[in-house]
Amino acid sequence: MSEVDSSDGPASEDRLGGPRLWILLQLNRWVFTGVILAVVYVVLVAFSLVDVTPLRVIVDTQGSIGFLFSAFIGAIITGTSIVVTINQLVLSQELGAVGKQRERMQKAMEFQQDVEETIEEDASPPEPAAFLYELVDGVDERATELEAVMEDERDERLREKITDYVEDVNRNAQSVKVDLEDAQFGTFEVIWNALNFNYSRKIYDARKIRADHDDSMSEEANEKIDHMIDTLQLFGPAREHFKTLYFQWELINLSRALLYISVPALTVMGLLIMYIDGNALLGTTLGIDNLVWVTSAGFVVGISPFVVFITYILRIATVAKRTLAMGPFILRESEREEDLG
């Protein structure tokens, strides 16, 4: 890499752009679930218009509609139980003796003090969004300080690289800080903005600049770059800590959502099995047999716990994939240039 490219696309301002990632990460999980279920419902109803055996004939042959929905009862009960059990196993890691809890407390306090010392704050905020805001703001300030000492550097090429680097850091930091101002932990906004700050690339760029110009760089500039790297290195553990807390938060929400939706789903399955047969709901609506409308709706209700599970796990899995490497390692092609290294 010959210089820092300030037009590094998503790495500079919005690394999470694009409709696919917006759907996977930011779209409300209940809306996402509703869209999937609506699509399934439309497909089931529309397929009845194709030249296939009518549903009412199939139900008459089977004697009742139970052949279609009886399997849902066992699947919903078993699936919900397994997910809740897994959730409890994950949360059980939070339990422990007082000595273990005290050690965790001490390590958390030590990290917070390291951050405060590095960003020169007397006391860092306790809220995750505000804490990350101060940390990103500290990186922003270190970049400005680095640019200030470059005025006396004789190496013009070095000054150009530092200017491009500082512009990239400032732009990314300002974008993230604006979104963190109103973010509340428990929503996805905190993690979204933590993912949007590409600290790994900034660590690499700073180390690469220093390695390429070590002979011509002044001692003061070296110190500023060291301070910059030290501040960036703190962002990784902070992001991973809040990501872990968010995963636990989401697993709790997932368990509650499945418990809320499972009982109504089981009730609907029971009603359909007990009361719907080939002689029920005679007639048509909009040219489609009423039995098709009701049976399709029942199928959608039956798969709803599974779809809720999918939408939550898709977000968790996507975040986990995008944060596999903590530190200076870059796994995704979108975060690097062709001449990286």
Automatic annotation (TrEMBL):
Any matching Pfam family: DUF7972
Species: Natronorubrum aibiense
Top-level taxon of origin: Archaea
Database matches in InterPro entries: DUF7972
TM helices/strands, residue ranges: 30-50, 65-86, 257-276, 291-314
Protein name, entry field: DUF4239 domain-containing protein
Keywords, comma-separated and alphabetical: Membrane, Transmembrane, Transmembrane helix
Record carries keyword Transmembrane helix: yes
UniProt keyword Membrane, yes or no: yes
